[in-house]
Structure formats: structure tokens, C-alpha cells
Amino acid sequence: MSLFNKTSYTSPLSGARLPDPIEGAYLDNNATTQVDPRVVDAMLPFLTSFYGNPSSIHQFGRPVGQAIETARQQVQGLIGAEFASEVVFTSCATEASTTAIMSAIEALPDRKEIITSKVEHPATLQLCEHLQRKGYTIHWIPVDKKGRIDMESYKAALSDQVAVVSMMWANNETGTLFPIRGMADLAKQHGVLFHTDAVQVAGKIPIQVANSGIDLLSLSGHKFHAPKGVGALYIRRGTKYRPLMRGGHQERGRRAGTENVSGIVALGAASELAMRSVQEDTARIAMLRDRLEHGLLARIPNAFVTGDASNRVPNTCNIAIEYIEGESVLLMLNQHGIAASSGSACTSGSLEPSHVMRAMDIPYTAAHGAIRFSLSRFTTDEMIDQVLAVLPDIVKQLRTMSPYWNETEGKPHEAEFAPVFA
Amino acid sequence: MWNYSEKVKEHFFTPRNAKVVEEANAIGDVGSISCGDALRLTLKVNPDSEVIEDAGFQTFGCGSAIASSSALTEIIIGKSLEQAASISNQDIADYLDGLPPEKMHCSVMGMEALHAAIANYRGETFVDDHEEGELICKCFAIDDAMIKKVVAQNSLTTLEEVIHYTKAGGACTACHEKIEWVLEECIEDYQAAGASTEVAPKAPTSIVQKVKRVEEVLDQLRPQLQADGGDVQLSDIDDDMVFLTLTGACSGCGLSGATLAMIEQRLSEALGESITVYPVGGARIPEAGGVS
Question: Which part of the chain is the Aminotransferase class V domain (chain A) (predicted)?
Fold first, then answer.
């Protein structure tokens, strides 16, 4: 099985040449993952031989429609749903989450409140802000310093005025898990619909939606080795539902629009692969992650892990490094062929650190220096060694340049540097 | 990741003068760790000639903050304090073959550190006019406090007016929805404060009155321009023609065309007649829509 195609590509139409594929330590798998070659093999026929429209009655359409149903069963298996028909394919998780929340408030028009957390993905966050402007009351449930949900505020916010709860299962920046099944059961007591954004858990830890209080669940293919452009929404049988996209009978009228067949087949294949190997992958990935984390903490002074280290997805490590800025670190890591990510302001173009770091009240000395490494089944021992070999020196180099740090003494000297505006 | 120029990358990976100048006699500290960037500039100024003989920087910040600091030291070494004082953030950005619009504030930080160091050398206090609000327009680093101030001062009601007066939303347009939200808030505020008692201006009768009224309008606009590191001076008035000199960051700013249009509109309102503004000296007017 070849993991990596080293040939360079030239567009046959424009003649434009793509840069040579980059081989390096890709540790940004919470952003997106490499498509598994077995997934590519599974989807290719649906870009070539099987091009029919799955809705067609003729022989070109039939095998295509069947492939979609197979994929539906594979996703059903991944999330432990009772029926395959509870799975609806979408273009991405943002579409799935938006559909879930909009459907819930349309289905329960008399309820004008929504509960969510302060650390959600922008797909949920900005939709809720938008609904707030339209007159909905949003309960923004805070988290503690370790990113754990404040259960008391959550319980207090629940009432029969609430239409829907939308909570992420795992946080994309820190990997911290919320107790979703327990939270869903509490919501049920008030007849509230419960949606979870499971983008960062699907394919990473075993999940089971059957016999839970979860009514709606969103996931995305490209976070677990399927290509970009495909996601799924789980809708528990019997859940009141209103479609977001109308105008066709596809997905039993729950999501109109001609299916992204090759993407759906790929999502099915990726689900099948994840299901088969999730146990052993998880153990191996967690070991690599822990080796990376312990190694960095031992080599870098004034650094600490953000999020709930004892309760998070096995592939994510978010380390806050004091007195340096994340973007500088990423640029230097990139020079060494290492890809990571940062919640720092400068990476995103805003002037504030990420909402997740702010919600956790990370000390201001470290909020801009949070670096996220996220692993996958393709992460190797060598990649971890590479990071351990270069990151401590990068930090040293940047701290030597920083007015807040005294490298000779190896400690901060904030007191001696108090700029004009603080 | 950002599309940095080769020059920015070069100054980031091999920064010049990343040091504390020994026996420095001018220090400029700006920024803050909670904002994500901070800079200490140390200078050795020859007390007789006032020439900057050495400069060093220490920077906490992103790639472009470090590159801007490095560029700043290269630009100012060998210059007199007077020459250095006229260096604008645009000069720093130009030296680096440009910065992404969202990163222009890094060059502003360099300029501020320089001004702070010069003030420190002269025994003056550097006054910082940063307002801390929610950042609305990322391209021009304009926050809600700034927008609210300008909206209230000028009783603006539409998105187009806000773009005209503040530049917010003038580049990538991604923040237009947010600007409308800020506008809604402001309009609610002044509706609550009661209807404004505006009287249509009468045309001035003498040239002295006219000059006075033009100066009043310019004084109102000045804080906005100065916030961007620029300024404006009245040069001459001839009938319905007003001649202005844009200085500082305004001269050569890619948006000086928009600035002049805004001034023209305000002068026309204040004088009760249609005024045409002509820039004199130095100010380049770019082609329409040319955001450089």
C-alpha cells in the first residue's frame, strides 16, 4: 500500500504545474487528514465507470444507488446507529450542524431558547450568534480552566423553553471530551432536542448513538481519511425534522440535491476502515501523543498542556508555551517540514487568541503560544522524534528575541518590561 | 498560512539587530503580551549630531512583527532623529516588499516604538491613543469603538458612509455584516438620546468666515486621520475650490482618494455649497479602486 504519491502533477488543460508533493511530519490532522489510499481505491470507479445518477431508473443509475446504500450502512456501523436510514449524507459537517439546529428550532417553533457552549466550532457559534440577533435566547455554557463543561450552568439552563442543545463531543483545539451521553439524557427530561458535533470523535474513539439521548449528530469525512466535501447527519428515527435544502427527493427528501456519490462512497469506506482498526489505532496514536507531550514538557520550561489531559481524544496534544507567539513557532516548524497549528491570534488574522483559549482562561502569558499537534493513523515514530529534536531550540531562539524573557537566567522578566500600553 | 514576501521571510528567519544595544540612550517599549505582540527598541543616539548610531530590537510576536522590527532597525541606523521621525509604517512595509493587509498593524507597532524611543530620548512622554474594542475590520485594524465614535460624530446611517468615513470594510468586505450590527446599535443609541437638533448650515458671507469653517471641519476630521498616522493642512481657498495638503501616512496612502472624497463631502455640507477639493504637494491620488 503506497501512502504517498511522490510524482509531481501537471494540469493537462492549463499546463500549470503543482509544486512537488510535500513529505514531512504532518501533525495537523484535526484540520484535515490524508485520504487513505484504500479509500481512494473505493471511490475512483464512481468518478469513472459508474457515473449514472443514483435517482435514475435505468441500469446506469442502479449500481450507483446501491453503493450509496452500502456507504449508509458503513456510517451506521461507525456511529452505532439502530437503522441505516437514520444517516443522511451532506456536503460537510457545517451543513450537517446547520441543518440540525435549524431543523430543531423549526420543528419546535414555540421554544425560543438554545443551549450551546462557549468553545464550539465557529459553524455552531456563528449560527447561534445569528439566531441571537433574530430574537433567540442563547445560553452560552462556560467551561472551566481545563475546558470541562460547567454542568451546573447546563442543568440550570435546561427548561421546556429550550428547543435544542448543541454541544461538541470533542473540542477541536484541545481534544477535551464533553460527557455527551449524560448531557443528552438530561435534555430528554425537558423534551429538548439534542445535537452533538462529533467531528473530532468520529473515527477516533468508538461511539454508539443507539439507546442514547442523542437525536442529531454531525460528522465530517475529511477528518478521518475520506476526502473533503462530504459529511453526514444522523437523525434518530422519530425525531421531528425539517430539511434545510429543499427541492428533491434525494435522501428521502431530507437533503435535496444530487448526491456527491464518490464522496459518499469514500465516507463509507473510511468509516469501515476506522471501525475495523479504531481499537488498535487509538492505542498506538495515544502512545505517540504521550511520548510527544512528555518529551516536550521535559525539554521546554514554562510550558503546559491545555484542556483536560485525562479525558480527551487520543490524537490531540495542545501545549501552551509561555512568552512566545504561536505563528512564529509554526513558521519555524514549517521550515523543518513539520505541520502543526495554533490558536494564536496572528494565525487567524484577528488580534485575540482563540475563543477556546479565552473560554478556558489560559494565562495571558501563554494564550498566544498555544501549539496544537494532532496525530493520525499515518503518524510515525520518526515524526515525533523530529518535533522533539527541533521544537525546544525554536522556543529558545524565539525567547532569546522576546523582551519578556531572560534567556541567560532561563526565566521571564516581565517586571522589567512594562510597555506603554498594556 | 500567510502569503509573506520573500523579504519578510528573510527578515524573520535571519533577523538583523535582534539585540539589546549596550549603553543605549533611547528606549521605546510598545505593545503588550495580552495583545500578542510587543516590541522594545533600544537606540544609541550621538548626542552631538543626533544620528542613530546603533539600534536593536526585542520582539514578542508573529513572523511579520519580527520582520517589521528587523526592517525598522535597518532603516533607521545612520539616520538623524529628525529624519527617523518622519518614517511611516508604510515605509517599513515597503522596505519588506509589502505586508498582508491583516498584518499592517505590525508595521504600525514598529513606527510607534520608534516614536516612543525618540520621545524617551527627548525626555517627553509618548502618548498612546489605542482604543481597545472588538476588532471589526481586520484589513485596516478598525475596532467597534472607532466606528461608533465616527458614526456618532457624523450621524452616519448607512454602511457606505461608514466605509467612506472610516475605511472599515473597504478592502475585503468580509466585515460588512458586522459593521451593520454596530450601526444598528449606534442608531438605537441616538434614537434613545432623542432626535438630533441639526440646523442646515448657512453659506458663509466672508472669506474669513469661510476659512474658519473649513478649519473647523478639518479639526473635526483630524483625530481620524491622525489615528492612521496622517494629517491634513489647509493650503488655499478659491471660490468653491479648496486646496489641501495631506501629510504623514495620508500622503501616498492607497486610500487618500477616498479620504479626499470624504473631506469634500463634509466641506460641502458645512459650507452649504458644492465644494471641490484639490490635493496639493506630494499627495498621490491612485486610480479608482486601487488599494495598494
Answer: 26-387
Distance, CA of A82 to CA of A76 (rounded, Å): 8
| C-alpha cell at position A207 | 461511539
- For residue A317, the surrounding DSSP H or E stretch is strand A316-321
Asked if B130 and A421 come within 8 Å (Cβ–Cβ), the reply is: yes
Nearest to B62 among A346, A364, A422 (CB): A346
Residues of chain B with pLDDT > 90: what percent? 31
In terms of Cβ atoms closer than 10 Å to its own Cβ (0-12, 13-18, 19+), residue B10 is middle
Give the integer Cα–Cα distance in Å for B168 and A14.
Answer: 38
Other Cβ atoms within 10 Å of B287 Cβ, number: 8
* Residue B52 near residue B78 (C-beta atoms within 8 A): yes
Residue A148's closest CA among A124, A100, A114, A182? A182
DSSP secondary structure string for all residues of A8-62 = --B-TTT-PBPPPPP-SEE-BTTT--PPPHHHHHHHGGGTTT--S-TT-SSTTTH
Contact B100, A346 (CB under 8 A): no
Residues B79, B83, B87, CA angle at the centre, nearest 5°?
105
| CATH 3.90.1010.10 corresponds to the domain B6-121 | yes
> How far does B10 lie from chain A, in Å, by closest CA?
12
Q: Would an 8 Å CB–CB cutoff place B116 in contact with chain A?
A: yes
Q: Which residues pair with B237 in a beta bridge?
A: B242
CA dihedral A53, A58, A64, A67 (to 10 degrees): 140
- The CATH number fitting domain B129-192, selected from 1.10.540.10, 3.30.300.20, 3.40.50.170, 1.10.10.1100: 1.10.10.1100
Q: Which three cell numbers stand for residue A320?
A: 501552551
List Cα–Cα distances, A139 to A107, A145, A165, B252, in angstroms.
Answer: 19, 19, 9, 48
Tell me the C-alpha distance between B42 and B57, whole Å. Answer: 6
pLDDT digits (tens, 9 = 90+) for B37-88: 899 999 999 999 999 999 999 999 999 999 999 999 999 999 999 999 999 8
Domain B207-279 classified CATH 1.20.1250.20?
no
Which of B20, B33, B120 to substitute to test the interface with A, most A CBs within 10 Å? Answer: B33
- Per-residue pLDDT averaged across A269-295, rounded? 96
Please report the ipTM that was assigned to this predicted complex: 0.86
Q: How confident is the model at residue A422 (pLDDT cuts 50, 70, 90)?
A: very low
Whole-number Cα distances in Å, A155 to A121, A187, A274, A300: 22, 9, 34, 40
DSSP string spanning A157-183? H-STTEEEEEEESB-TTT-BBP-HHHH
Q: What pLDDT is recorded for position A347? A: 55
CA-closest candidate to residue A272, choices A39, A35, A31, A32: A39
> With helix as H, strand as E and coil as C, how does A241-272 read?
CCCCCCCCCHHHHCCCCCCCHHHHHHHHHHHH
B101 near A CB under 8 A: no
Active-site residue, selected from the candidate residues A92, A128, A317, A346: A346
Q: For A257-267, how does the pLDDT look when each residue is reduced to its tens digit (9 = 90+)?
A: 999 999 999 99
Answer yes or no: are the C-beta atoms of B37 and B60 closer than 8 Å.
yes
Q: What is the value of pTM for the model shown? A: 0.80
What secondary structure, in 3-state letters, does B2-60 show? CCCCHHHHHHHHCCCCCCCCCCCCEEEEEEECCCCEEEEEEEEECCCCCEEEEEEEEEE
Instruction: Kindly state the cell numbers that stand for B105.
Output: 498593524
- Residue B106 is a catalytic residue: yes
Q: What is residue A118's three-state secondary structure?
A: coil
The model's pLDDT over B191-211, given as tens digits with 9 standing for 90+, comes to 777 654 444 556 667 888 888
Q: Which residue on chain A is closest to B112 by alpha carbon? A: A420
In A93-226, beta strands by DSSP E = 113-117, 137-141, 162-168, 193-197, 216-220
